[in-house]
Specification:
CATH topology: Transferase(Phosphotransferase), domain 1
Radius of gyration: 14 Å
Number of strands: 0
Distance between the termini: 30 Å
Strand content: under 5%
Helix content: 55-70%
Number of helices: 7
CATH class: Mainly Alpha
CATH superfamily: Transferase(Phosphotransferase) domain 1
Structural class: mainly alpha
Order of helices and strands: HHHHHHH
């Protein structure tokens, strides 16, 4: 299974847009990841959302692991399932909370 692609899909589902246009060294967002400047990558994506807290630390941790350039550094499926972001609580428990969450993300 391509865990890098799974990370891209997860990022899109969470953010509503892709993390980068191409996984190539000259692509600005991908270049930040491939040169281990994850903090800058996340700061720029938070700026796109006009919310420095849009991405939780657990989400950033999981996606950063999944986007590792070297495949042997990426987590296994078991690691992903056990990751705190997936092991955490659900975003909302009532329909009103769900609608509010979707409204915030739109």
């Amino acid at each position: 299974m391509d865990l890098f692609a799974l990370g891209v899909i997860l990022f899109i589902l969470y953010s509503g847009h892709p993390p980068f246009s191409l996984a190539k060294p000259d692509e600005p967002y991908y270049a930040l990841l491939s040169t281990h400047r994850e903090t800058e990558f996340w700061a720029q994506h938070c700026q796109l959302k006009n919310d420095q807290n849009f991405y939780s630390e657990e989400f950033k941790s999981l996606i950063t692991l999944m986007f590792q350039r070297e495949t042997y550094l990426r987590p296994s499926i078991a690691d992903i399932i056990a990751h705190p972001w997936l092991a955490g609580g659900v975003a909302a428990s009532s329909q009103d909370e769900i609608l509010a969450e979707f409204s915030n993300r739109q």
